[in-house]
Write the structure tokens for this entry.
Amino acid sequence: DAKTTQPNSMESNEEEPVHLPCNHSTISGTDYIHWYRQLPSQGPEYVIHGLTSNVNNRMASLAIAEDRKSSTLILHRATLRDAAVYYCILRDVRGYQKVTFGTGTKLQVIP
Amino acid sequence: NAGVTQTPKFRVLKTGQSMTLLCAQDMNHEYMYWYRQDPGMGLRLIHYSVGEGTTAKGEVPDGYNVSRLKKQNFLLGLESAAPSQTSVYFCASRPIVRGNEQYFGPGTRLTVT
């Protein structure tokens, strides 16, 4: 299975943009890039996903490198409620089970 | 629409006891999953199901059994609990649509003494 690499932790000031990087150099052509986040004492929640093109939704933006070997989750204005662990995972469109959640990036938002 | 619910929220077991964790979803999703999460680690897949009556092993299936007798329910069983199974357990479900996201439950915190 293709693996992702993320920094263990990052800090951001409140109301500043945050760029969370993810490397996935062994990504295959059939892998979607998904981002989830986990707030303290809660289950993970979906943030965004994409295949090749950049994506935007109400929560965040996803920028995907042209070679697809890396991606960046962008939170446009960090709030205290965005403090969470962010997971970047790959999901093969052909399969249904091979999803590995790594240790993610713990984002701290400083007031 | 309750989404994904898990029962119980907390449980303490003695070594050797058995129990069943219940996951229920009301979104008519085909796929369901059980994960465990330990301190400092990500989520690890225990078992999953791609439809009613089918189950399969994930990364860490030993010591667990599962059943999916109804589409909306996915049960995780511990036949003889061990302290190594102390963890937070998350259930998730997903529709069959390609690329679609998983919906997670709130988790069950299990302690085995």
